Amino acid sequence: MKDQIKDKMGTTGLIFNEPLLWEKGSPGRTGISLPRRDVEKAPLDEKLVGDGPDFPDLSEPDVIRHFTKLSQWNFGVDSGMYPLGSCTMKYNPKTNERQAAIPGFAGAHPLLPESLSQGALTLMFDLQHFLGEITGLPAVTLQPAAGSHGELTGMLIFAAYHKNKGKPRSKVLIPDTAHGTNPASAALCGFKPVAVQSGPDGVLLPETVADLMDEETAGIMITNPNTLGLFESNIRQVADIVHAKGGLVYGDGANMNAIMGIVDVGDIGVDVLHLNLHKTFSTPHGGGGPGAGPVCVTEELEPFLPVPRVVKDGDRYRLDEDCPLSVGKVHAFHGNFGILVRAYSYILSLGRQLKQVSQYAVLNANYIKESLKGHYHLPYDRPCMHECVFTDKHQQEYHVATLDIAKRLMDHGFHPPTIYFPLVVSGAIMIEPTESESKETLDLFIEALKQIAEEARTCPECLHESPQFPKVRRLDETAAARHPCLQG
Ligand SMILES: *Cc1c(COP(=O)(O)O)cnc(C)c1O
């Protein structure tokens, strides 16, 4: 079995070992050559040098090889399929990087006066407009730095809206299929999150919402498509119920990649929505680096958006700070501008084809769902959106769990899917192929998962011992959490 996998997936080859930098080099070696000294030798000032770190003595090639080798241990969407449900690890076209590197954008200083920033302001104004068109919610801020930051901004808007009406409210309804950041964002703004149980089909039932909605409740936060990968088909009725009691509807649009160009979010009753540019609009997820989670709102809520707002006067663009009802600033300057350039480039390069992005994302997820249906337990057997959720229920009788399945996929050259999330599904395996994978890759992935299901029956211990081929085998996760060794 081992060799079969190796032949097929090309997981053989050179994988270099690499010690710590401190274990390399040799005393006196340096990365630079200084000219011969032509003055008297003088001791270093102890006060300036102190007991600084004991840096290793290395040459330039030592350092370059060290970090290049480490980079080859990495796995990214540029190296293979990365079907991490809920995260949308789609391929990011390289043209977006080129546009972001144009010196006029890359070198623009946020303190330049408006008169010297007309290009950057035009881009921001147009991007706001594009996102307004795509969502059907016309007023947009680009400031928030992530999806969850967009949620926080949205909750600040909820609070400001009710306060402005003269009646602050204390609770926010949150379905059990919402993303975990939703209750956290509501709580950070001082709201009490109230859980709403979804119905047997995995979507919200209007009557459940009607029972909970009252005039103490600021509104509801709906992840749509929800974390089961299902479209909230009753959202219009739910929105009517919430609006009738004076509440607002927040849409978690992190997964807009499933419905772009197909659903008008304003039309289905959403008042505030955030987008994840690093998911839907193909900007890098960034390993903790900058992201962007723009927030789109109805015209009625525009006065509450963060300042400064990018506005157009005649044929000039300027920043408007004069918004008395605004929730204030949520990010330094104007947000993560370099990320906005990438999203702008992505939208312009696709134009009307943005709709196809969603169609292919949904088609690919349904192809995987239908192909694996007999092999893995499918808790909600209905058409999915951009991702599908299986469980390990069929494999449990062989003592094989979701974790074993995920680890074995690494031997086949795939990044594992999201596991044990969403929490409403026990032993969840959440697969999001994205639109950027070809049918050949999807077929290889499906074949790998079928083989693993077969192996669960014939050789469960093989799965317990996986992964076999990666540089690092199975880790002791408890020990890693309890006794972190941060030195290597
Ligand atoms: C990813 C995601 C978020 C959080 O976005 P971050 O940018 O990671 O803060 C929120 N909601 C949903 C549905 C998501 O998929």
UniProtKB/TrEMBL annotation:
GO biological process, one term: glycine decarboxylation via glycine cleavage system
Any one Pfam family match given in the protein's UniProt record, by short name: Aminotran_5
This protein's UniProt keywords: Oxidoreductase, Pyridoxal phosphate
GO-annotated cellular components: cytosol; glycine cleavage complex
The EC number(s) this enzyme carries: 1.4.4.2
Domain Glycine dehydrogenase C-terminal residues, every copy: 358-459
Keyword flag Oxidoreductase: yes
Enzyme class: oxidoreductase
Domain Aminotransferase class V intervals: 161-286
Catalysed conversion reaction: N(6)-[(R)-lipoyl]-L-lysyl-[glycine-cleavage complex H protein] + glycine + H(+) = N(6)-[(R)-S(8)-aminomethyldihydrolipoyl]-L-lysyl-[glycine-cleavage complex H protein] + CO2
GO molecular function: glycine binding; glycine dehydrogenase (decarboxylating) activity; pyridoxal phosphate binding
Domain of life of the organism encoding this protein: Bacteria
Function: The glycine cleavage system catalyzes the degradation of glycine. The P protein binds the alpha-amino group of glycine through its pyridoxal phosphate cofactor; CO(2) is released and the remaining methylamine moiety is then transferred to the lipoamide cofactor of the H protein.
The name this protein goes by in its record: glycine dehydrogenase (aminomethyl-transferring)
Organism lineage: Bacteria, Pseudomonadati, Thermodesulfobacteriota, Desulfobacteria, Desulfobacterales
